[in-house]
Amino acid sequence: GEILGERMAISWKHFPSIHLFIAFRPGGEALLADTLDSLGQQFYKGWGLSVVARQACPDPVFSEMDMLEWIETDEYVVQTLNQCIATSSSDWVGVIEVGDRLDPLALFSVVDYIHVHPEWVMIYTDEDTVTAEGGFINPQFKPDVNIDMLYSMPYMGSFCLVMHSLLSQ
């Protein structure tokens, strides 16, 4: 922790904001709790999460924490999600899936890469599937940008961040 804090203090010029979005469907409450737990353990604190759903918020924690937002909509969830992404004031945005669990250093690592490669406008990461017992069973180690692979399969996966200013272009 000291080494990471020192790295932030010495080499980081700014602390970009990251806004994550989830399209929520009924029945995913336990999975959402897993995602919230993993976000709560992030070493980097400059993030926010908006959950878009066609139902009322099931947990009062969303009204108690500034970084969480529950958006109830009568429209199509994806339509409202796109509107929310477009109006976000964050530097980076990304859509994650309910149930995604990020390593405690995931957002720190992303922000560190943002400082090392300021020319990057999109970031995606390796992924794995975790069993109920905590084992890893499906590692996906992803290459640098590969247009042919991108055309043939969705290799960017479920954790992908885009510089918000790129979306307006």
Q: What is the H/E order?
A: HEHEHEHEHEHEH
Q: How far apart are the first and last residues' alpha carbons, in Å?
A: 38 Å
Number of E-state strands: 6
Helix content range: 25-40%
Average pLDDT, rounded to a whole number, is 90
Shape: globular
The largest sheet has its strands arranged as 3-2-1-4-6-5
- Give the structural class: alpha/beta
Number of helices: 7
Largest sheet descriptor = 6 strands, mixed
The gyration radius over C-alpha positions equals 16 Å
Query: Proportion of β residues?
Result: 15-25%
Segments where pLDDT lies below 50 for 5+ residues?
none
Comma- or semicolon-separated keywords:
169 residues, alpha/beta, six-stranded mixed β-sheet, 7 helices
Q: If you had to describe this structure to a student in words, what would you say it looks like?
A:
This protein is α/β, with parallel strands linked by helices and 169 residues long. Helices cover 35% and strands 17% of the residues. It is built from 7 helices and 6 strands, in the order αβαβαβαβαβαβα. A 6-stranded mixed sheet has the order 3-2-1-4-6-5. The radius of gyration is 16 Å and the shape is globular. The model has no long low-confidence stretch (mean pLDDT 90).
